From TrEMBL:
Protein name according to UniProt: DoxX family protein
Membrane-spanning segments: 44-62, 69-89, 109-127
Keywords: Membrane, Transmembrane, Transmembrane helix
Amino acid sequence: MTPRRTLLLAGALAGLLATSGTIHLVRPRVFEPLIPRPLGSARAWVVGSGVAELACAAALAVPRTRAAGGVASAALLVGVFPGNVKMALDSHPGARSPARQPVVAWGRLPLQVPLVAGAVAVARNAGRAAR
């Protein structure tokens, strides 16, 4: 992967994670139904994941921390996948939130694969892109 492509991919992932993290903090109720009750406070998990997304975005944006940001982002994306599956299973036609519409909820599941692969690629190539 070229240094320019690594930089562009890192920027795209940082933007996506920053947007998602912000939404988690501004509208936590959207995500609270994804948290299984045995885990305790849904709000705490949603806010925590939002902060984690913002931290990953920041790490991806800084050349010195980009490799670690790629690893952390890949782990985060894998970690939230069960919540995305739950969202898809709970989706239904006519849902008020577009994210809860079946076509959106199910359509986003396969998108996790290239996102994780992209984060791993950034982690692997960040050193070359910084030179």
